[in-house]
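[job 4471] stage=fold_predict status=RUNNING
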Amino acid sequence: MIRWGINALNHGSSLAVFKNERLISLDVSHEDEIPNDIKLKALNYGGAPDRIHWYERPWIKKARQVYAGQYNTAMDMSNLPSNYTRKAGLGYAPITYTPHHASHAAAGYYTSPFNHCAVVVLDAIGEFECATIWNCHPGKMKKVWSRSYPHSLGLFYSAFTKLIGLEPIKQEHLLQQMSEQGDPDWYRNTVADYFTGTVNLNTNFHRGVLDWKYPLDNLQDQCHIAAAVQYVFEQQVQQVMTLAKTLTGADCLVYMGGCAMNSTVNKKFVEPMWRYIWSLPNPGDPSSSIGAVLYHTKDRVRDFTWDPVKHIEIKV
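[job 4471] inference complete, writing structure tokens
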């Protein structure tokens, strides 16, 4: 049986090919739609897919878009996976939809060498969920904690990325770098006041930071803001990791989602907290095409060659 896991119509795309429940290939693109050359390459691995696994649930996502006031996007039916696959010439293949955070979590867990572990997923937004913790035992994944829109560390970080003049979703790594040149004490309390608990915000950052009243006149101002944002982000991640250890009793961590790319907080807080750690080279949406399949098949991926993981020290 040929299964295709697909992540598309978002910020980039990816396609994973499984043949007889074995991962054969994973190709990633910066384009929102999967390029033809990637689709043609996938067809060479045994032919057309018998089933497509989509990395999120489109109607739940549209419900969140309505809730968020994104009415034009929510009412646009051209971005439904069924219409997209039909346009791509794949309309014959049935589609299985996977919850967005479940795709993240399954991609990490079923590629890891761990039997019992905590899986932490932190990202901007998919459907409603923005942060989840999973307790994973042999072959089973159980969600034990979550935070939903608009309570999002990813949206928080991206909003401040935009505030200091960078491109959100793409240049968060530059905010991380700029934070090293700033003093967090300038704005630490101001930024911390946006939080009332662990990944619990009193502000919706989906459309940016709309109430900032402090100077943005020069690069040093921007660096001070970046330093405060990084500091508060680190405190929040540390709280989530502490909660994950408490809820699961595990000493193994699988860390997924776009927030996992923040290497500074990983080195300072995440790595020292866990005896064993696993992640994927890109723990964000590109690997969700793998998880969209594995969440349903529950097969372990043992013989696939991964690129080096740079954002966190793998300890297995």
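[job 4471] summary: The radius of gyration is 19 Å.
[job 4471] exit 0
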